[in-house]
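User: Last request for today: this protein with 4-O-methyl-beta-D-glucopyranuronic acid, please.
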Amino acid sequence: EGTLVDTVQAEVERAADRYGGTARRNPTEAGLPPADLVLALTDALPPDSSPATEPGPPETLTATATATTTAVATATAQLATATAQLGESLGVEGFALARHAGVTVVLADAPAGLLYGLFELVRLGEAAFGPTHPVRVHRPVMARRMLDHWDNVDVHPVMGQVERGYAGGSIFWHDGRPRGDVARVTAYARLLAACGINAVSVNNVNVHATEARLLTERLDDVVDLADLLRPYAIRVHLAVTFAAPMVLGGLPTADPLDQAVRDWWAETTARVYARIPDFGGYLVKADSEGQPGPFSYGRDHADGANLLAEALAPYGGVVHWRAFVYNHRQDWRDRSTDRARAAYDHFAPLDGRFRDNVIVQVKHGPIDFQTREPVSPVIAAMPGTRLAVEFQVTQEYTGQQKHVCYLAPWWSEILRFAPWGDDGRTVADVAADGGGLVAVSNVGDDEFWTGHPLAQANLYAFGRLCWNPRLRPQEVLDEWIDLTFAPDARVDPELLRRTLHEIMDDSWRTYERYTAPLGVGFMVRPGHHYGPDVDGYEYTPWGTYHFADRDGVGVDRTRATGTGFTGQYPPPWSEQYESIDTCPDELLLFFHHVPYGHLLHCGSTVIQHIYDTHFEGVREVEAMCRRWEWLARLVDPAVHARVTERLAEQVRCAREWCDQVNAYFHRKSGIPDAHGRALH
Ligand code: GCW
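Assistant: Here's the final one, the structure of the complex with 4-O-methyl-beta-D-glucopyranuronic acid:
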C-alpha cells in the first residue's frame, strides 16, 4: 500500500506542477507551507477531529500553498464529520470530496480511494477549486472493473500479436518475449486508474503453447507486469488453459475430479501467490472454439470452474469462467441448433453449484458482441451464481477502430435493461452484486493507444460506466473531451465539444444503420470480420445465420414455431419477444423470420427500412467527415490527420456495406426502392 500512496504523491506533484503550486507530503510535520488541496487518509485524522487539530501525519498529501494550516485542518475535519454524518462508509476505493473555506479536501479510508479521488479532482478541474463544492461521497458501483487483453506472447500465425487487436502490437508482449517497455506499461496503468479500472488480464483467453507457460516457467514475466500495475491499484489476472496439468505438469489427465490434478493446481497456484501476493486469479475459456475443457472428461463446467476456485480460495483469488460455450461445428442444415441458446443451455442448469469465488463471465448478448443483440438470458437465469457481464471495447464487430463508433450508448442501454421488467433489477444490478464488468481491451502499441484516436473514448467510457453505470453517455463523452483535448490554446472548447458530440453521440446507431439490419447480426467477412459479406457465414458451421430467401429474412427463435430461444427469458420479455407485434423493431430479425413487406412499428416495411437506413447511414458518415474538417486547426495536427484518414476508410466501407446489403435484398426480394434510388 505504501507504493500506492507514493503514486498518489507523485500524481499530486504533477498536478501541482501543472497548476504552478507546490506539493508536499505531511506539510505540518515538515514545516512546509500549508495548502489549499489536501488528500487525507481517515486514519491520519484523530478520532474526534476538532477544527483546531492539525491534519496529522503520516499520510496527508497537499498541494498548492495558499491556505493556512488551521484552514486545512478545519476543512479536513469538517469533511470527516460530514462524511461520518452521511453514514456511508467509504470502502477501500471510495472517497469523499468537498471544498470548505478555501480548501479542497479528498478524504479516503485507503490509498486506492485517494488515487481515485485525485483523478476525480483532475476531472473536475477548476470546478474543484471554486467558491464551494458540496460534500460528495464517491464509491464504485462495481467492485470488479476489469479489462481482458487478448494479447498473445508469441505472434499467432493468423491472429497476430493481439487477437482482434486494431491498435498495433501488444504493449505487454513482443514476438515471444515481454516487450519490456516499462514507461509504456506504467503510463497505461495510470490511464486505466484514471478511468477506474482495477484488474487486468494480461494474455489471450485462447491460450496457446507459450502463453500457457506464463503460469509456470514464465511466471517472472507476469510478476514484472504485476509490479508495474500495482502502484495504480490494478491487480493482475492470467488466462490459463484447462489442460495445464497435462501440458505443463505432465499428468495424463486434466480431469477436474482427479486428485493429482487438484494437487497440481493447488501447488501451482501456491507458487503464483508466493511471487504475486495480490494476484487476482484465473480467467478460463473452456470447451469453446477449440479450447480444452471439462467436457473431455464427461464433467460439467461447475466441476471445471470449482477445481480452479478451490486452488485460488486460500488466497482470496477468483476464477473468471467464461460462459461463451457453443458448438462451432454445427451443421447449417440443422435448423434446431441455435447458437443463441447455447450459453443458457450449458450454464443455467448449473446455477447454485459454483463455489463463491467463481465468477461466471457472460457476454452481454447471446451471440457474440454484435452491433445489436438482446441481452443474454443467462444474466437473468442464475440467481445463485456470481455473474460478470463482458463487453468488447475492442471493435471487432463495430468497425475495428477504423470507424468512429462510440459504444457507451449501447453499453448504457444494456446496463439499464431490466430483464424481469421495468420494476425489477437491471443488468448493472446483477453485475454489481456479482462479478462486476469485464471488457476486451482496445489498446495496443499505437501512438494514439487505440488506433483511432476517438476510440479512446470507448476505453474511458467503459471504466466510467463500471464506476457508475447510471452516468449518461453524453456526460461521459464530455469528460473525455475535456480531459483529452484541453487545455490547448488553439482550441475553442465549445466548438470542439459540440462538433465531437455531433460526430460521436450517435455513431453507434449510424454504424448499425449501414451494417446488418434489425438485429440479425453478422453479415461480416468471415475470419477477420471487417466489411460486408451478407452470405459469408450463411452456410458455415459457426451458427450465425440470417435465412434470407426471396420472401423474407430473419431467425425464428420463437417457442411457437422456432428454436424456442424466447423461452429462456423471464416474463415480460419471454412474451414480448415471442410476439411479432410486441418485439422491438431493432431486434425483429433476431427473433422472427418475416416477409419483406412486414410493417414495422416505425411505419416502414422491412425492405424499405433496409434501403432507407443504409442510405442514411452513409449520409451520416459523410456528414461526420465534413464536421471533422472544421476541426482542422483546432486539434493536434497528427490526431487530425489520423482521424481524417480513418474517416475516409469509414466512408468507403459504409458505401460498400450500403451497396452490398441493398443490392442483396433487392435481388432476393425483387422489390424496388420506393424512392427510386439505384440499388445495383
Ligand atoms: O468474437 C469471438 C472472436 C474470437 C474470440 C472469441 C471469444 C478470443 O472472433 O477471436 O476469441 O470471440 O470471445 O473467445
